[in-house]
Amino acid sequence: MNRCSISFSDCCFRLVSHRSILGFVANDLPLFCLRRRSLSLGHSIVGSTDARPFPDYSPKKPTIRDSEFVYQISTALKLRRSEPLRRILKPFESNFRTDHLIWVLMNIKNDYKLVLDFFYWACLRREPTLEARCIVIQIAVASKDLKVAHGLFCDFWAKPNLDLCLSYSHFVERLIYTYKDWGSDPYVFDIFFQVLVEAGMFNEAGKLFDKLLNYGLAISVDSCNLFLTRLAINSDGIEMAIKFFNEYPEGGVCWNTTSHNIIIHSLCLLRKIREAHNLLLQMELRGCIPDVVSYSTVICGYCDVGEHQKMLKLIEEMQIKGLKPNSYTYNSIIVLLCNTDNVVEAEKVFREMVNQGILPDKVVYTTLLSGFCNFGNVPAARRLFDEMQARKIDPDNVTFTAIIHGLCRTGKIVEAVELFHEMVSRGLEPDEVTYTALIDGYCKAGEMKEAFALHNQMVQRQLTPNVITYTALADGLCKRGELDTANELLHEMSGKGLQLNICTYNSIVNGLCKAGNLVQAVNLIKEMELAGFHPDTITFTTLMDTYCKMGEMTKAHEVLREMLDRGLQPTVVTFNVLMNGFCMTGMLEDGERLLKWMLQKGIMPNATTYNSLMKQYCIRNNMPATTKIYRSMGTQGVMPDSNTYNILIKGHCKARNMKEAWFLHREMVEKGFDIAVSSYNALIRGFYKRKKFMEARELFEEMRTQGLAAERDIYNIFLDMNFEEGNMEITLELCDEAIEKCLVDKAHNEKI
């Protein structure tokens, strides 16, 4: 991403989620409706002279005997309404029939409470007819009791073994038949439409929509919005939602901003971002003003497909229109920046979000700290972790797992274990992902005993190790040369019904290569193909890496050629392997040519690509060439990582450019990167040789504060310095520390 000031960001990996769309509907009702008839006011269509009239209600006529019975019930209900209904109606219960219900309702229809009580009493005796149910629904809507009306609809559709098609036809027929004389409130059809939509009966809802147009009525905007939303939630219904939206404005339907937002989101789900953007541009022409949600949804879509420039242009348009970004906008850009390794820029956007008064939630914090962990900047992730807790935002399993994974990736297994125990002490249950991250960390550190102990604990907690768990264990065993044990583990995997996948094979191939068993690795690749697993980019990149480290660049080229012949696309990691090979064998000109070719082909290098070249130029003490590459890195928008800084610091110290080395050290600290022990040693030696004793002492104390051990000659420098200054207490303390760090630890490591 270009280094420009982003004044906000929005809509994350939840983007304009389904939950968000429902929120739009809830907050922005009503919406739109209608089709090819003229404009609608409320529910009636203006100028619809050809509309079909609703039928007159003409129920079955009661006999004289029934009329007398109905009169007695109606009179008793009206005169004795203060008494319990069951007591009033007890004398009539034995002779009461379903037909009597409608006739009584005709006499008491102006007393809504009485209607409802009597209807429920009748329902306890026998199932009411569909006509009676529709009559009570009409009365409830006319009395503005929409909750009861909705419930009466739902009760009917919740019945078991209901023939939906037949029931729908009968229900619509009865609802239309009872409409004119029992309520005449068109919102009754809206509620019915909503119930159909909620039940997932989208075809029936569409039929109802069309049928009502023939009667000169239109479903209200809020109900149609609900229809669009429910269709958009279902992946199979997105196209139907878009078709419905495009078809019905022909008759004069004015979709509002919310309607457009739903369809824009639907188009983005289909990755039709340009169509979504075009709809955004058309909104004002259609009389709708785009809001922050409209822009945020399209911004989010462009973020998903990585079109940074269009995203930035939309952000500028938002600013011009005076629209303030919301949390979704910020989240979206933060996710994009993290996914493209621009984590430092992501934090700038995050800080601006906070400055604008928009409080980040757990998801935003987790996204950003995961980005730092993936980038190798765990201290920055820990800082965010502490910050979110200071804001009273409790980290969850995902947050803890992200940092544990980051610590394990950077070899900080002790800190990872401490955090794991803290997670458990807070009552959070680690899942398979958490355990696997920690097991992988132990395996990478070569601590296989601890890895298997954690595996056993995982099983005891009734968590099932997956293919990734076993792959990590197999990889750790292979790296230690315990190939037979790794094979046994794979057999155990198969015995548990877990299928080996390409990742498992790649892990073992990598382990064999690391152990120097290249022939076995090649043979395993052949076995892998016989088992139906075709080598992928990672497989070939692993082989290339081994050949490059052996200095056999010709064979590495052959592997690359075979990879291309198979139609596999090399990744930036593949090219980094090749770059490292060129640099290690002294072929720096070839390395620079490779970098130039990558840029020409649109393959974006990362920090590792540049680091390989800079490291070799530093070794040759060619700092002008190193600086040139570093500047080129910045021009391409590639952010330096901790290795970049450590390489440059040691290079400048070696060339005695202490001012530049000191500046890089300060910048590195500000960005939260870890400074390598070798960089501290180089800086201290450089300043000491230049007689910059204050700077050397400051760095030495900084190093000790972090628990890092300096090399023996560095300890000797400060032992002599403090002795000459008469600081005997510090001298003795340093002496003990030097013995412990340089002698005891060294002997222990050699023993291991």
TrEMBL record:
Query: Which controlled-vocabulary keywords does the entry list?
Result: Repeat
- The answer to keyword Thylakoid applying to this record is no
Keyword Magnesium belongs to the record: no
Spell out the residue ranges that the record assigns to PPR repeats.
Answer: 256-290, 291-325, 326-360, 361-395, 396-430, 431-465, 466-500, 501-535, 536-570, 571-605, 606-640, 641-675, 676-710
Any one GO molecular function term: mRNA binding
Q: Per its UniProt record, what PROSITE patterns does this chain match?
A: IQ, PPR
Q: Which InterPro entries match?
A: PPR_rpt, TPR-like_helical_dom_sf
The family note in this entry says: Belongs to the PPR family. P subfamily.
Q: What is this protein called?
A: Pentacotripeptide-repeat region of PRORP domain-containing protein
Species this protein is from: Morella rubra
Show the taxonomic lineage. Eukaryota, Viridiplantae, Streptophyta, Embryophyta, Tracheophyta
